[in-house]
Each structure stands twice: as C-alpha cells, then as structure tokens.
Design brief:
Length: 194
C-alpha cells in the first residue's frame, strides 16, 4: 500500500483532501514563494505546487515503502498582477481595490508525485466581485480572515457576500480542486470510493 503525504499547512487543503481520501498525513514544507522575473502566473503556480511536492518527496523518500506527495498552490490573478497573501493592511487594501467591482482569476495547481512519476493539474476559475466600499474593506480586514489567504479573501467565509458570480471550480478557489485531484489520486492508484 502506498503512503500519501499532503505537503501543506493549509487547514482547507487538509479538509478537502480528507473528503476524497482520509488516509494521509499532512506535513508542511517550507519553500520560497516568489515569482521569477517575467514568469507567467500559470507557470509560477505550477512551479510552486511541483516544488512543494518535490520537497516532500525529498524528505520522505528515504522511508520504506512507496510514498506519494501532494503539493498545491493557489494564487489570485488580477490583470497582470499576482496577488498572494496580504503582507499588511495597506497591501490588503490595494488588493481589494483591484478586486472591487471586477473579475479576477483564481489559479490552483496540484502536483502529485513520487520518486518516479509526476502528475499535474492546474485549474483556473473566474470570480466576479461586487463593488466594495471602504467600510466593507475595513470591516473585512478586522475579521482577521484575509491574512492567510491568497488575494486576501476566503470565498468559503465572510467574503462570500462579495461574490457576484463564479465560473469554474469552487473547491479550487478554496485551495484544492476536488474533481481534478481525485483523477490524479486514481491515476496514482489510490482508491477514492465514497
Ligand atoms: C482565494 C482563496 C484562497 N484561499 C486560501 C487557499 C490557500 O490555503 C491560501 C493560498 O496560499 P497557498 O500558498 O496556496 O497555501 P498555504 O500557504 O495556505 O498552504 P501550503 O502552502 O502549506 O499548502 O489561500 C481560501 O481559503 N479561500 C479563497 O477564497
């Protein structure tokens, strides 16, 4: 039986993966999250997912048995800008200014790998926000919810009220696209029956 490791500190990813396949261990890996000069958002998010999975494989490969590691990364893309987690309040306000009354993309990449095989998926979802007032933005920051989330918001939380429409995968926005992740797990030989 292969062992499955989720290379992540995200409680959302843990919960989403558990809904597909419960028998895994979550183990955060520290990798630097910074885009290279001229790196495209899709390339960047896929590179980070690959680096997280690879760091996990390097850590666990010495163990006995077959180990598969799942790494994932989520970014928000507004025009040319990549929005990650807000560093501070002013950074968050800048992000909300971009998202207000507009459509942005949420990209989540998933990489499932062992020492021999690398399986990838990348999902792009379009999200439209209603216009946000300064008091919406200030009140939302004070809830503490934005701090650990790409683009500074959680669609599964209080920011749901800002979302006018979504086209694509809801679970991908939350941090792990379930449909595509199940397909990768099945390709790797994990049985995800309900
Ligand atoms: C847009 C959006 C993002 N997010 C979260 C998903 C991710 O956890 C986080 C993006 O940061 P990531 O760097 O992708 O993930 P992470 O640092 O939380 O976890 P790890 O790298 O250890 O796997 O933002 C939401 O929870 N809801 C949302 O609506």
């Amino acid at each position: 039986m292969s062992r499955l490791i989720l290379a992540s500190a995200s409680p959302r990813r843990k919960e989403l993966l558990a809904s597909l396949y419960a028998d895994f261990e979550a183990c955060p890996v520290g990798i630097e999250e910074r885009a290279l000069p001229a790196e495209k958002p899709g390339d960047y998010v896929q590179r980070l997912a690959y680096e997280k999975a690879t760091a996990g494989v390097e850590r666990f490969a010495a163990d006995n048995g077959q180990v598969w590691v799942l790494g994932s990364d989520t970014i928000v893309v507004s025009g040319e800008a990549i929005l990650e987690k807000p560093q501070h309040k002013a950074d968050f306000e800048r992000m909300m200014g971009r998202l207000s009354g507009a459509t942005h993309q949420v990209m989540t990449a998933v990489c499932l790998r062992n020492t021999e095989r690398v399986l990838n998926a990348c999902v792009v979802t379009e999200v439209n926000f209603r216009p946000l007032s300064q008091s919406d933005i200030t009140a939302y920051w004070q809830t503490g919810e934005p701090a650990d989330k790409a683009g500074g918001y959680g669609i599964q939380g209080l920011a749901a009220r800002f979302v006018r429409s979504i086209s694509g995968s809801y679970t991908s926005v939350v941090g792990l696209p379930l449909c595509e992740t199940e397909a990768l797990l099945n390709q790797a030989g994990f049985r995800t029956s309900m």
